Amino acid sequence: MSAVPDGLVAALTGLAGRRPLLVASDYDGVLAPLADEPSAATASPGVAEALARVAAADGVTVALVSGRGVDDLRRVSRFDGPYRWVGSHGAEYGGPLAGELAGRRDALAETLAPLVAAVPGARLEVKPASVAVHVRQVTDPVAATALLADARAAVDPSLTIKPGKAVLEVAVTDADKGSAVRRLREDLGAAAALYLGDDVTDEDVFRTLGPADVGIKVGEGETAAGHRVTDPEAVLAVLRLLGDLLA
Ligand SMILES: O=P(O)(O)OC[C@H]1O[C@H](O[C@H]2O[C@H](CO)[C@@H](O)[C@H](O)[C@H]2O)[C@H](O)[C@@H](O)[C@@H]1O
């Protein structure tokens, strides 16, 4: 099977004629293969060039929409282009977050730190608007599942819980990627949008897409996206094809 299924080639061909066009993508598991350590998730070779080519087309805006904080996303991706940077699942939009959130986030980190410290391999990631409990490197699956359940039970139930791949995030804002992409579209007056994502939080975006848009789920699992590709390698093929169609 070709990396880009025929139905998706047709959809991208139609999309390439629309302006203004928003091309938005999640990062981890999409533009970068998943890695054991969050800081080791470097972008797939060729992706930076493919994204830059898409962004160079007239009337096209590329946006990076990540659960990571924007500073972290810039550092780990090493992308450097005329992109819109949306971080912290949409909470960081057009600039850093207000400082008062940091106190609530730090209190949350204090609550979760002892739980994480008690499970070998678990890791606590403190981000601008959330705290993530990672279990990718916990070798005992029972301990991993129990830690995620304990973390959920330990926090104020009014906080926003975001499950993901071997991770549970607790956020001090109720931002979501779907609202962020809707806002991007309004800012740009976009006639159509493309969105690529692989995880639970990306479904908030797929659910907002309309008939003129193209949603692409990367990998397995239930999705509201209209299209699917297998992995980040196939994402590179999609971006290269889109670059050709826009040229
Ligand atoms: O919205 P994304 O750009 O996909 O970011 C989602 C989370 O990605 C990172 O965690 C995930 O990727 C790690 C590196 O591959 C992996 O080790 C971890 O198991 C995954 O859950 C990041 O660390 C989180 O902050 C992001 O929210």
TrEMBL record:
What the entry lists under Gene3D superfamilies is as follows: HAD superfamily/HAD-like (3.40.50.1000), Trehalose-6-phosphate phosphatase related protein, domain 2 (3.30.70.1020)
Free-text function comment from the UniProt entry: Removes the phosphate from trehalose 6-phosphate to produce free trehalose.
Record SUPFAM superfamilies:
HAD-like
Q: What is the lineage of its organism?
A: Bacteria, Bacillati, Actinomycetota, Actinomycetes, Geodermatophilales
One short Pfam name that applies is Trehalose_PPase
- A Gene Ontology molecular-function term? trehalose-phosphatase activity
- Stored PANTHER family: TREHALOSE 6-PHOSPHATE PHOSPHATASE
UniProt cross-references to NCBIfam families, sorted A to Z = T6PP
Family of the protein in this entry: Belongs to the trehalose phosphatase family.
Q: Which UniProt keywords apply?
A: Hydrolase, Magnesium, Metal-binding
What pathway is it annotated to?
Glycan biosynthesis; trehalose biosynthesis
Native source organism of the sequence: Geodermatophilus maliterrae
Q: What is the required cofactor set for this protein?
A: Mg(2+)
- The entry's protein name is Trehalose 6-phosphate phosphatase
The family database entries (InterPro entries) matched by this protein are listed as: HAD-like_sf, HAD_sf, OTSB-like, Trehalose_PPase
Reactions catalysed, semicolon-separated, are: alpha,alpha-trehalose 6-phosphate + H2O = alpha,alpha-trehalose + phosphate
TM segment ranges: none
Instruction: Please verify whether the record's keywords include Metal-binding.
Output: yes
Q: What is its EC number?
A: 3.1.3.12
